[in-house]
Amino acid sequence: MSAKYLQIAADLTKKIEQGSYIPGSFLPSEPNLTALYHVSRETIRKALNELMLAGLIQKIKGKGSIVLSNARFSFPISNITSFDELNQQEQMHATTRVLALHDSHLPINISQELNLTDTAATYIGRLRSVNHEPIVIDEDYILKKYVPQLSKQVAENSLYSYFEQELGLAIDYATKAITVEPASNKIINQLQLTDTNLVVVVRSLTYLKDTSFFQYTVASHRPDKFKFIDFARRKTEHGGFIL
Amino acid sequence: MSAKYLQIAADLTKKIEQGSYIPGSFLPSEPNLTALYHVSRETIRKALNELMLAGLIQKIKGKGSIVLSNARFSFPISNITSFDELNQQEQMHATTRVLALHDSHLPINISQELNLTDTAATYIGRLRSVNHEPIVIDEDYILKKYVPQLSKQVAENSLYSYFEQELGLAIDYATKAITVEPASNKIINQLQLTDTNLVVVVRSLTYLKDTSFFQYTVASHRPDKFKFIDFARRKTEHGGFIL
DNA sequence: GAGTGGTCTAGACCACACG
DNA sequence: GTGTGGTCTAGACCACTCC
């Protein structure tokens, strides 16, 4: 049983997606939602705040909460969604081929930057394809400390669901960097690049809820298949924040 | 006079940045912060939530709020920060050359997608350079409805500070899409690309606080100079959200 | 003035971590 | 058990929008 405000947020999200609330129109006012859901106003406000963060609504003081549209996240890297979860959402026919799976260590620059001593890791190399077109090469380093063993079968499916559901690991946040770089010949061949030697590289450092570092990933995307969509709210000045 | 919780968030942020609170250590507990700042616990929690969103701390139930580090946003597209604001933050010597400034209209695909009729806009083309190296070509379409006139002088400086401080426009959020595409010959020349014809294209739709569409921007970056860094929290399943 | 969202309070109960 | 963060309440006052 999750928190009330999350249930309310999920319910409102569903109603927006189903069209019960039309983009451009206003949601019921906070006092009205308070009555509808039989909760206090602060709880309603927490729920609406979730919709704000998701870019689904915009609140206007003195007027109300307006339903936004166009907020389509077709490749939401910003939410740590993995390839397999995307696959299900986007209804595309994707395949994953495991190219390598063996014991290894974190790259030195990473373990140095993070000040880690226990760098034993499992290395996984995977080629993801959509409709028989190679899209991205994922290279993962997963710390043995948290995942001692990994099978090829798991690697062919979703690592994240295995980590979370089978191992009970609580994945929580990540820092990601996107750059464009020349690819190695190996990757050029694997992605079947012909016109260019450039790939989009997304490097991720993933952490657990207890802030321990857990996984390093380098994803090399075909540049013509890469798309990243983001919703951003403007920071205010002088130490201000998003609201 | 901004809200208490924002002042507290700004104060805590300052103390983290100054090193009063060390990465890896815990902040004072919420009851302690309540006493320190003489506010209620919910107000403290709103402040801490801002630090969470900014990736500065991580809260662990039953333990406390731990100070994170490593979260360095060297090119935070995800916060709508503009080139000029970045310039000041990053201490780099940057120049802006205005290549074009004339009346125009929004591209048809944009006005159709957004269902706009009043598409009169000012077109601005600008070349941004750092240390005499061309980095990015910005092409802006700014609706005349909100900004009837624009001078070359304003375009050479920060459009955003002009919009916000001179015109009092409240810029609030944007959707952004990042792709990699072949560039036109014109842009290839302007960015002095030699090894490749690919550029990183960041398209932005910017909106005001009242949800009215305001500006369309196409930024074409030299691929070797492009970097995007992001901090992301994991979405929970079944309609769940970030927290 | 009536209705809206923005902020804040003082208290309560719960779940989790640790000794 | 004690301390921590997570949630929720019922009320209050303010600023803004619109009539």
From TrEMBL, chains A, B:
<dbReference type="GO" id="GO:0003677">
    <property type="term" value="F:DNA binding"/>
</dbReference>
<dbReference type="InterPro" id="IPR036390">
    <property type="entry name" value="WH_DNA-bd_sf"/>
</dbReference>
<dbReference type="GO" id="GO:0045892">
    <property type="term" value="P:negative regulation of DNA-templated transcription"/>
</dbReference>
<dbReference type="Pfam" id="PF07702">
    <property type="entry name" value="UTRA"/>
</dbReference>
<dbReference type="InterPro" id="IPR000524">
    <property type="entry name" value="Tscrpt_reg_HTH_GntR"/>
</dbReference>
<keyword id="KW-0804">Transcription</keyword>
<dbReference type="InterPro" id="IPR050679">
    <property type="entry name" value="Bact_HTH_transcr_reg"/>
</dbReference>
<dbReference type="InterPro" id="IPR036388">
    <property type="entry name" value="WH-like_DNA-bd_sf"/>
</dbReference>
<dbReference type="InterPro" id="IPR011663">
    <property type="entry name" value="UTRA"/>
</dbReference>
<dbReference type="InterPro" id="IPR012770">
    <property type="entry name" value="TreR"/>
</dbReference>
<dbReference type="GO" id="GO:0003700">
    <property type="term" value="F:DNA-binding transcription factor activity"/>
</dbReference>
<dbReference type="Pfam" id="PF00392">
    <property type="entry name" value="GntR"/>
</dbReference>
<feature type="domain" description="HTH gntR-type">
    <location>
        <begin position="2"/>
        <end position="70"/>
    </location>
</feature>
<keyword id="KW-0805">Transcription regulation</keyword>
<dbReference type="InterPro" id="IPR028978">
    <property type="entry name" value="Chorismate_lyase_/UTRA_dom_sf"/>
</dbReference>
<keyword id="KW-0238">DNA-binding</keyword>
<protein>
    <recommendedName>
        <fullName>Trehalose operon repressor</fullName>
    </recommendedName>
</protein>
